[in-house]
Design goal:
Elements: E1 5-9, H1 13-23, E2 28-33, E3 44-48, H2 49-57, H3 61-67, E4 69-71, E5 73-78, E6 83-88, E7 100-104, H4 105-118, E8 122-125, E9 129-134, E10 139-143, E11 148-151, E12 153-156, H5 163-167, E13 175-187, E14 195-199, E15 205-210, E16 215-222, H6 234-241, H7 249-254, E17 263-271, E18 277-278, E19 281-283, E20 289-290, H8 298-313, H9 322-352, H10 361-371
Parallel strand pairs: 1-2, 1-12, 2-8, 5-14, 12-19
Antiparallel strand pairs: 3-7, 4-7, 5-6, 9-10, 10-11, 13-16, 13-17, 14-15, 15-16, 17-20, 18-19
Length: 376
Amino acid sequence: MAVRKVLVVGGGITGSVTAIALAQRNVQVDLVEIANRWHGVGHGITVQGNALRALQTIGVAGDVMRDGVGFDTIRICDADGTLVNVVSTPAMGGPDLPPSLGTLRSDLQETLVKAVHDAGVNVMLGTTIASLVDHETGVVATLTNGYEATYDLIVACDGIRSQTRTMIGIDTSPQRVGMGIWRLVTDRRPGMDCAELSYGGPRYKAGFAPISAEKCYAYLLDEVFDPDASGRSRAEVFRERAEAYGGQWPAIRDGITDDTVIDYRVIESLLVECPWHRGRVIVIGDAAHACPPLIAQGAAMCTEDAVILAEMITDRDTDADLDAVLTAFATRRAPRIEMVVRNSMQLVDWEIHPDTPGADPAALMAESMATLQEPA
């Protein structure tokens, strides 16, 4: 089952970590990224401890932590800013790593891009798969730049709308969950030293987390609607949508200008049933599973996928054929991922219907994180 040459499709977090992990195991890796400029989007991201553990495996956790802010607490507040509960975040990556880390997506991606190049990966930007033909001994990929090559394996990391997933006949598609999310980066002020969530206001939830010594990542879970339909600026619409929140939120609103980059997008969910491969092509990360960001485990599930797949397909002690290894990989990953998706969707339901009897978002988040302390 020797895997010597792999094509990785997609240069986001999943694809970058996959390429690095494989190259570090002496696999020849080509990585194609459809964008002509390779960078992460600028808003914040929470990188949980188990994601840091995966990043530590490929030697980049130190650089990621240097750029971000670690914390171990989530404050739960009412909409007016009154503290209701404090949830301690367990050390999901082990005692030597922060339980949670806030950072800029662009900083995380910059670290990964450097590591991809340092690992000797052949990167082709503005390029993706045009067609593929899967044979018993290899899969021939023709790329949009005209290049053609035979690979032992293709790993599709091209996101929730993966074209590769469709190309190999997996017809699972993303579904809207009934929420949209606003995201922006704002100035960090005194007291913004951990994650904070505010419930009970006119929107589903408001939150923020520190991402550097000077900056904070703020977000608002809202209804699904067109934020540009009124013709007003997103800054004006966001300030109005967040108007009822107290605590740090008046300062967050006051700090927004028409130059502030404000992202709004509809939240979707995806879960491909096992197996995740067809022949010598496998989908992983958001191409196989994506969930609402209510437990902040998106990056963790993707990075775990990447390092575990790289380990399993380069295990020199196994005599299993590639099909068996790819099946075993998805079977190993599925229970953990299904728990994250299931609990994230339960949180969505509770936040859309806050009067649900027995709803306890803080307890469910704590339960989920406790389960994720177990190694992937």
